[in-house]
């Protein structure tokens, strides 16, 4: 009996070549990459991002050592991560506008809570969302996230746009790092014994993402207060 070849409507579940079905990769005992987890949320994430950036545009902050960060930063939520010559810290006010950081959009909170729960962390309630913008060449050197009030809650990060090579290290800077590519729609969740691991991002390669153009956006959601 003759049957039609299966066409795009049945087989092509992910129309964009850079998209992929969701699946989980384990990086450590309590660290997971949820591949493609954010894809269904992208239109809402981008709309919320646009609103947030109107009130708090990306800026290149100074490190305590006096270097300008290559990554552009903004924040939303009750607390925002900042750096200047006097150090790294969370503040309630945007130092550029003098106003509170824009509110955390509901879609960020919901996605972060869903992803955390998928990775075994119940009731994640972030109060801070750092927004990182990588243009080609921008990088983040190996560091630990240790400006938060408690290391008990996990951290959730969402990647959009151009792919980046993420470095997932150990508890000491000198420990060997795993290289993990992070693609548009990937979500990383880590906590517990993996919470204080060193990590970083290699310089972003040139490219054009069909939706975001020549950039990578990363949202990092934390309980900071
Ligand atoms: C940490 N951002 O803003 S988040 C940062 O892609 C930051 O922009 C990076 O590090 C970025 O502080 C990485 C993703 C991430 C993933 C796994 C980790 C951070 C991690 C595992 C352990 C510790
Ligand atoms: Fe970090």
TrEMBL record:
NCBIfam families: PRK15401.1 (NF011930). Its EC number is 1.14.11.33. InterPro entries: Alkb (IPR004574), AlkB-like (IPR027450), AlkB-like_sf (IPR037151), Oxoglu/Fe-dep_dioxygenase_dom (IPR005123). SUPFAM superfamilies: Clavaminate synthase-like. Gene3D superfamilies: Alpha-ketoglutarate-dependent dioxygenase AlkB-like (2.60.120.590). It is an enzyme of class 1 (oxidoreductase). Fe cation binds at residues 143, 145, 199. Residues 125-225 form the Fe2OG dioxygenase domain. This is DNA oxidative demethylase AlkB. Its cofactor is Fe(2+). GO terms for molecular function: broad specificity oxidative DNA demethylase activity; ferrous iron binding; methyltransferase activity; oxidative RNA demethylase activity. It holds the Pfam family 2OG-FeII_Oxy_2. Binds 1 Fe(2+) ion per subunit. GO terms for biological process: methylation; oxidative RNA demethylation. GO terms for cellular component: cytoplasm. The lineage of its organism: Bacteria, Pseudomonadati, Pseudomonadota, Gammaproteobacteria, Pseudomonadales. It comes from the Bacteria. Keywords: Dioxygenase, Iron, Metal-binding, Methyltransferase, Oxidoreductase, Transferase.
